[in-house]
């Protein structure tokens, strides 16, 4: 575990560039099968655009990379709120082999059932239903932080945050918009990675980043990789006192 490392960049553009470099570095570091856990929300969109761009797509060995998602809104794939649908449309569908895209299914009867199905898919991919600290599930986990300090769909005070055994859980009610049920990977599943990378950019994030840096025990602070955790932030998100 260990403290997250803070990396400050100029703006959202520089942040997406830095994140794309981390993705490529992780991919290059692993000569075998690679697993990347994507995230939803608006923060990673620039990164996804970059990864699909002419300048970057050639740096990724698409036939060796598998793409998962850390949380999903329980809405059909055709709904613009669907996190994986956004990633697919921006960069995955044009680049990744179809069998390498692993969405959280939202056609199940309930978020709980969808969580169970996805847990089984992750466990089949990993080859075990027990996480081995010596063998991380993911090479890289991308994360964002919401205004209430949530990350993935782990909202402060929710039982999902305290889950210690299940890898994926249903979250019946969101704490912030969009107010649709969610399905989320849990802290232990997300922690099983070589690197966890938070993208936190823009002035809107300043209040929550201030609280996170103060070490409040919010889900976004408790989310730590067993490898290394990086908080990639831009100047606009930094608290006034520590701006460069
Ligand atoms: C989701 C996300 C969530 C997100 C934060 C930040 O499904 O909403 O996975 O954890 O990363 O809420 O969202 P923004 O990037 O939109 O600020």
From TrEMBL:
Catalysed reactions listed for this entry: 6-phospho-D-glucono-1,5-lactone + H2O = 6-phospho-D-gluconate + H(+)
The Glucosamine/galactosamine-6-phosphate isomerase domain, residue ranges: 11-231
Class of the enzyme per the UniProt entry, highest EC level: hydrolase
Matches recorded under InterPro entries: 6-phosphogluconolactonase_DevB, 6PGL, Glc/Gal-6P_isomerase, NagB/RpiA_transferase-like
Keyword terms of this UniProt record: Hydrolase
GO biological process, one term: carbohydrate metabolic process
Annotated GO MF terms: 6-phosphogluconolactonase activity
Pathway entry: Carbohydrate degradation; pentose phosphate pathway; D-ribulose 5-phosphate from D-glucose 6-phosphate (oxidative stage): step 2/3
Matches recorded under SUPFAM superfamilies: NagB/RpiA/CoA transferase-like
Record EC number: 3.1.1.31
Family: Belongs to the glucosamine/galactosamine-6-phosphate isomerase family. 6-phosphogluconolactonase subfamily.
Role this protein plays: Hydrolysis of 6-phosphogluconolactone to 6-phosphogluconate.
Protein name: 6-phosphogluconolactonase
Annotated organism of origin: Bradyrhizobium cytisi
């Amino acid at each position: 575990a260990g403290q997250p490392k803070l990396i400050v960049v100029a703006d959202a553009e520089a942040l997406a560039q830095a994140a794309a470099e981390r993705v490529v570095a992780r991919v290059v570091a692993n000569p075998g099968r690679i697993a990347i856990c994507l995230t939803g929300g608006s923060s990673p969109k620039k990164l996804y655009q970059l990864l699909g761009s002419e300048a970057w797509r050639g740096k990724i060995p698409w036939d060796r990379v598998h793409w998962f998602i850390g949380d999903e809104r329980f809405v059909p794939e055709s709904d613009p709120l669907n996190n994986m649908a956004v990633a697919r449309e921006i960069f995955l569908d044009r680049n990744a082999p179809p069998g390498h895209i692993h969405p959280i299914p939202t056609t199940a009867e309930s978020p709980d059932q969808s969580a169970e199905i996805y847990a089984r898919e992750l466990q089949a991919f990993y080859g075990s239903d027990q996480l081995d600290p010596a063998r991380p599930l993911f090479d890289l986990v991308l994360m964002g932080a919401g205004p209430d300090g949530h990350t993935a769909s782990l909202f402060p005070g929710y039982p999902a945050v305290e889950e210690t055994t299940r890898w994926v859980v249903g979250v019946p009610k969101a704490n912030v918009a969009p107010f649709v049920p969610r399905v989320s990977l849990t802290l232990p599943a997300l922690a099983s990675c070589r690197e966890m990378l938070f993208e936190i950019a823009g002035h809107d994030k300043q209040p929550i980043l201030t609280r996170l840096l103060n070490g409040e025990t919010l889900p976004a602070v408790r989310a730590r990789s067993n490898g290394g955790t990086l908080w990639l932030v831009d100047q606009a998100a930094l608290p006034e006192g520590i701006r460069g």
